[in-house]
Design goal:
Layout (H helix, E strand, L loop, with lengths): L2 H16 L11 H11 L3 H4 L7 H8 L9 H20 L18
Length: 109
């Protein structure tokens, strides 16, 4: 299997492994999300970006429909954020910039 294919299937498999479906759509509650992040993230570059005390805050940020659980789309958003963090760390690029705005020039007296 090609590398990108493997990544895609791994994302789906990890989500389904940890998501408790209770006979409905698979979703991660806060404990399941915490478990995924603690077990499945091992590299120091990414682990440093995750603070166990901030899981509740992360849950609020990810849980766009405010149902107290993270669905697959919301989980993918989390994975994308972690991928961007890793990219920035690896390349030194991709930090926040002024999008389409020119910095204000200093006024001379």
């Amino acid at each position: 299997m090609a590398r990108l294919e493997q990544v895609i299937t791994n994302i789906v498999d990890v989500f389904l492994e940890y998501a408790d479906d209770d006979g409905k759509k698979p979703q991660l509650n806060i404990e399941e999300l915490k478990k995924v992040l603690e077990i499945e993230i091992q590299s120091p570059e990414l682990k440093d970006k995750i603070n166990a005390d901030d899981i509740g805050e992360a849950m609020e940020m990810l849980d766009k429909n405010h149902d107290g659980e993270v669905n697959f789309r919301e989980f993918c958003r989390c994975v994308c954020v972690l991928a961007r963090c890793y990219y920035q760390k690896k390349t030194g690029k991709g930090g926040k910039k002024l999008k389409g705005k020119e910095p204000e020039a200093e006024q001379e007296d």
